[in-house]
């Protein structure tokens, strides 16, 4: 069982940088907090799980006529600079999990041998569209998950809804997330609270007021 994991949602250049293909307003404002959380995880040996968009033109989400609810312009396209993590959350030793079925033994062997970030590739908003996500959670069995990233009203929301199933404590770092639509984000937050999710700050996490950050063994 893993005491705590940090869950870094989609802090990729196409979302985080003003010139990105699907820039989230206000995203640059949280970069310093993202950097602090990344550094905190490394200092304490906390496992970082980092879903990432890994799009191709054939993905249903990608459209030349997007509705910005279920379809979006091309973004985080496979192999492009916009798909990469920003400097504040760039990995040092990533393990990339493809969007395909893995056996439990296969994943267990990969996780056992790895000491670095776990990057879960996805072609849709929810990380749980990758079948490996649930198995990784079962194998790590975190007691606490601390969520941050973009955007609160889409990918963060789907992440939190999947995590908050009553089997673990879930916290969202309010000052390390940003939304496309602030009003929608408030409705999402209300739903999270109904599921027992708590809102915290970067300072709360780093000062260990949320949970004790134990080194991974």
Write the topology of this structure.
Blueprint: E1 4-9, H1 13-16, H2 31-44, E2 47-53, E3 95-97, H3 104-112, E4 118-122, H4 132-140, E5 144-150, H5 155-163, E6 169-178, H6 182-194, E7 198-200, H7 202-206
Parallel strand pairs: 1-2, 1-5, 2-4, 3-4, 5-6, 6-7
Helix pairs in contact: 3-4
Task: Tell me what you see in this structure.
The mean pLDDT is 96. A seven-stranded parallel sheet has the order 3-4-2-1-5-6-7, sandwiched between helices. Helix 5 (155-163) links the parallel strand 5 (144-150) and strand 6. Helix content is 29%, strand content 19%. The radius of gyration is 16 Å and the shape is globular. The protein is α/β, with parallel strands linked by helices and 217 residues long. The longest helix has 14 residues, at 31-44. The N and C termini lie close together (11 Å).
């Amino acid at each position: 069982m893993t005491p705590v994991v940090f869950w870094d949602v989609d802090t990729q250049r196409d979302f985080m940088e003003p010139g990105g293909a699907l820039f989230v307003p206000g995203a640059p404002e949280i970069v310093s907090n993202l950097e602090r959380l990344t550094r905190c995880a490394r200092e304490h040996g906390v496992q970082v799980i980092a879903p990432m968009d890994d799009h191709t033109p054939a993905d249903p989400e990608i459209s030349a006529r997007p509705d910005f609810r279920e379809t979006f312009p091309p973004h985080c396209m496979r192999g492009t600079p916009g798909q990469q993590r920003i400097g504040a959350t760039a990995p040092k030793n990533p393990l990339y999990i493809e969007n395909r079925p893995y056996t439990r033994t296969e994943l267990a062997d990969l996780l056992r041998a790895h000491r670095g970030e776990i990057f879960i590739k996805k072609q849709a908003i929810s990380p749980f569209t990758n079948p490996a996500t649930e198995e990784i959670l079962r194998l790590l069995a975190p007691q606490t998950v601390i969520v941050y990233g973009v955007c609160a009203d889409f990918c963060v929301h789907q992440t939190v809804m999947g995590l908050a199933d009553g089997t673990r404590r879930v916290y969202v770092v309010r000052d390390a997330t940003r939304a496309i639509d602030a009003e929608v984000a408030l409705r999402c937050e209300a739903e999270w609270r109904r599921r027992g999710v708590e809102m915290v700050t970067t300072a709360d996490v780093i000062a260990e007021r949320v949970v004790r950050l134990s080194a991974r063994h």
